[in-house]
Amino acid sequence: MGQWVYWESSLGHTGINLLGQNPDNGATSNVIQDGYLIKENIRYAGYKSARVNESYVGYDVTGNQFLDILPISITPETYIQFKIDEMGINEKTPAPPRYTNDWQYLMLTFNEGLGIQYSLNQFIYLGPKVVYLTFDPKLIIMDNLYNLFEKAGISIPPGGLILRNIAFVQQLSILDTNSTVEHRQRMKIDSLRIIEGKSQ
Amino acid sequence: MKKFYILALSLFFFFSLLFYIESFGLEKGTHAYLNRKIIEQNKISLNTYINSALGFLNGVEEIINGKEVIVWFQEAGRQEDEPAYTRSFNHFHDPLQPWDLAGFNKIFKSSLVWAQDQGMVGSLLGGDWSWKRARDSFYKGLTSLDKASREKHFSDAFRALGQIMHLIQDASVPAHVRNDPHIYIDLFGRKIGKYHYESWVQDNLAKINLSPASFDKSIFTFTPDSLAPIPIANLFDTNQYDGTNLGITTGSMIGITEYTNANFFSEGTVFKNYPHPTYLDTNYFSIDWKNPEVIDGEDGKQDRRIYIKKLEGERLASLSYISYDCIQKGSYESCPLVLDGKVYEEYASKLIPRAVSYSAGLLDYFFRGKLQVTSIPIFYKNRLLYLRVKIKNLTPNETLRDGVFTLTYSFRPKDGNPNGSQDIWEQDSSPSGTLVEGEEVVIDFFLFSPIPRESYASAKFTLAFKGTLGKEVGAVIGKSLSLGEIKFEEEWDNGFTGNHRWVIQGLTF
Lengths: 200, 509
Fold this sequence. Notes:
The complex is a heterodimer. Chain A has 1 helix and 12 strands, in the order E-E-E-E-E-E-E-E-E-H-E-E-E. Chain A is 4% helix and 44% strand. Chain A is globular and about 60 Å long. Chain A is mainly β. Chain A has a single domain, classed as Glycoside hydrolase family 11/12, catalytic domain (Jelly Rolls), CATH 2.60.120.180. By secondary structure, chain B is an alpha+beta fold. Chain B folds into 3 domains: 2-207, no CATH class; 217-366, no CATH class; 371-481, Immunoglobulin-like, CATH 2.60.40. Helices cover 31% and strands 23% of the residues of chain B. Chain B has helices at residues 2-18, 28-41, 43-54, 69-79, 111-114, 119-124, 131-143, 147-170, 174-177, 197-203, 233-236, 256-263, 323-329, 341-366; strands at 20-23, 63-64, 67-68, 184-187, 190-193, 293-296, 302-305, 307-309, 315-319, 337-338, 371-380, 383-393, 400-411, 424-431, 440-452, 460-469, 472-481, 485-490, 503-505. In chain B, the strands form 6 sheets. In chain B, strands 14-13-16-17 form a 4-stranded antiparallel β-sheet. Chain B has a 3-stranded antiparallel β-sheet with strand order 1-4-5, covered by helices on one side. In chain B, helix 2 (28-41) crosses helix 8, helix 4 (69-79) packs across helix 8 (147-170) and helix 8 runs antiparallel to helix 14. The longest helix of chain B has 26 residues, at 341-366. At the A-B interface, strand 1, strand 3, strand 5, strand 11 and strand 12 of A face strand 11, strand 12, strand 18 and strand 19 of B. Strand 11 of chain A pairs antiparallel with strand 18 of chain B, so a sheet runs across the interface.
């Protein structure tokens, strides 16, 4: 199980301002290579400002233009299936004990504030309605979404569960002082599916 | 003695080829007719199972191996008497004998043993069409790796089942459960032998009541003799009736041979050879001999006859045509008793509904295994690499164990011939473990030939279980599977936004 991270910011981990850009403090890239999405989020040494690299589908904001095929209705037989080969950082950013200032995860956001976050020791705490899970890189992971909530003691909303957003997030948060090292987050994503098991 | 029977069999076989023997059991046409009607009566449940298990769309009307499923059953009704009625010697079962001696003249196999084990000799005369053959063929049909083989094996399974239905129907013929040989030969148009029950049934098919008698599935809970260990033996003989407990034979939890033996006469065993029916079971001692019934005789003229009836009222036998003189002279006791058309009509009204419901019971038992499955495809590099299958045993009151689950699948490769000739077939197996009713196991079947994403829609899966189900060793359950729906899919094989409208956001705060 990954480390639990408590982050008190009320801003949310990403803004809703689609036009927001990173400052000139590093580099971000999203490259498709051999069937992988390779995401990198780099903050150069000598900077303390934040940097983010997020890929998502399904935000129902800004006129719903990025809904794609979401929202998706989730049933007791709906599964997430993904394979992420890498999700790491070259060197952890400085942070108080039990805190971290670098986050990296796959996030599924549902109705009624429910969520599922997969990470490798780079979690961000987004409240008690989110399930926080580690995973084995390079393996095909398959989980039943209902079961994940059930095991975490989180009730399914009475009207049913609806997947509203899928996001791969890399974020380096603000430091107290300029970093003396370059921080380099890297995520290598092979595939992601939402599959409805067929009972017959 | 043995040489005599071998000689007799040889002569019978020889003459059978020369002449058409109309009956050595219910007529072939009767069996074909009954099999078809029974399938039609059970069409809804059979269609549900066949479509679910085999992936058919048309149930018993599906054409496999050149014929509709229902026709395979229908023809099997005839085929059990072929070639030339030689198999008919194994269509007898005397429920008051030990099973190894219950066959015709204690020489041939009892029909209930024959239904489960036809042995090498039996196989030489028309082939092995036993329950074991039905199960083996059904399993091969479920697991064969090409369409033609699957259809061939399925048709064999249906044929074997149809031929066992024939055996059950013959067990409703009194002569077949009271060791009474009866031959009726058509020698170039000339009838030789005695007209009997089976001939009457064939001649009166249209007016026979085919409504099934009540049937209690609990009959399968009896443990049969080890000679025929599969519980279908109970359809024939539950080993409850021993000649002294007549009352038990009229219930629904009784073998059909026990019912028939105890309650009806065959032509050659009227009040003899068997403990029942006895005179005391009938109205014999209270018959008003001077007032015979006036009936329409077989010749169309009115006739006067005295009938021996069961105490409940069914006709069991009558004084024969030649008895008229006896009656006139008052010598009733010496009058020969015969079974006439009226008697046969009442026999058929009781026996055929039993034959119908017990034959349907056989089918129900064959198809009783129920699995609920949930399929979840697992992909790797845009190919279906595993199929996760959650398998739940829903067979009422029966545990599934000591077996194997086999997943057989096919798919059409890109640009494969639409006629299926280039389809790719594969399979994977896994031990079943033990599943009591309601229990579930999850198995990830590895697809040795991964299914490309573009062939996903053409993929067909069949799950087969072979093992022990309840008391039946070698049971088989089939289940056709379709794949789950892919609600969202991203393989990054079509650029960053080629599959979905991914948005990149870099935000500072």
